[in-house]
Amino acid sequence: MSIEILKASSVTKRFGAMVAVNRVDFTLYEHDVAGIIGSNGAGKTTFFNLLTGLFAPEEGSILHKGVDVTRMTPQQRVARGITRTFQLTSTFDTLSVTDNLVLAYYRAFHKASMWNLFFTKMKRFHDEPKIISILETFDLLPVRDRMVKNLSLGEKRRLEIAMAVLAEPEVLLLDEPLAGLAESEIKGVLAVLRRHIGKQTILIVEHKISHVQDFVQRLMVMHEGRVIAEGGYEECLNHPEVRKSYWQIDDSATENSSNG
Ligand SMILES: Nc1ncnc2c1ncn2[C@@H]1O[C@H](COP(=O)(O)OP(=O)(O)O)[C@@H](O)[C@H]1O
Ligand SMILES: [Mg+2]
Fold first, then answer.
1. Closest atom, ligand 1, to C-alpha of 43
2. What are the structural domains of the chain?
3. Percentage of residues in the chain with pLDDT exceeding 90?
4. pTM, whole model, 2 decimals?
5. Strand partners, 206
6. I need a labelling partner for 67 at 20 to 30 A (CA). Which of 50, 164, 246, 252 fits?
7. Centroid of ligand 2 to alpha carbon of 113 (angstroms)
8. φ, ψ of residue 114 in degrees (nearest 5)
9. 45 lines ligand 1 (CB under 6 A)
10. Comparing C-alpha atoms, which of 170, 167, 215, 166 is closest to residue 189?
11. Tens digit of pLDDT for each residue in 80-99?
12. Is the CB of 258 under 6 A from ligand 1?
């Protein structure tokens, strides 16, 4: 039987009169690769923030492995081990790719005093097996010594995800990791994410349904705060409510989409 990592039951979040998330039920099982799809303003990021604890819902509950975390702060959820890094980590633009990875790794596993060591002894960690292996997995070996500010957007996004993965989160939650990328870069990011399927619980938010077609096992489609469909890709694509709002979802197909 699969472990329920996160379970949201009928959660509602309002901003004034506006209902951003409307009685949403969602369960994320261990090693799930699940996607949340929906047009801009559908409530995807707000639902995400309910899972991470940035907001508390007005109604409903969120369980982590059966324990109620609905009112817990993000820090308390991190302490429970839900995840060390919920979202994409910000990078240090004037440090190299490898130095960013070393920092992400030691930030996750060592105490703050380590920070003093980082800047003087960082080089000694460059050949850590974990660092080398993540550089390989994320196709970053060729740019390992490059300053982050000189990376392409696709390389930088791979680095951000690599930094999140290094912290060994229980759940890798990605809110629009493909936003702003060109098609070729999207392929590269999805290819590296695919290597984590079966090893990592992944929840990915995306507004273009075709991007996650070959990636996720399970989809939840949101529209105006509600879940309008759930299931496999085909099932969701052919769902009447999804078809009704599908063009809205796929309006972005012609643009290089990015949203907040
Ligand atoms: N902090 C906030 N304050 C007020 N309204 C918000 C806030 N965050 C989101 N909203 C509103 O909630 C709705 C859902 O937004 P969001 O969750 O960001 O959608 P999505 O991520 O699917 O594009 C939108 O109408 C948005 O304007
Ligand atoms: Mg969003």
1. 17
2. 1-86+170-260 (3.40.50.300), 91-168 (no CATH)
3. 48
4. 0.84
5. 37
6. 164
7. 35
8. -60, -30
9. yes
10. 215
11. 767 655 556 678 888 899 98
12. no
Q: Give the amino acid at 66.
A: G
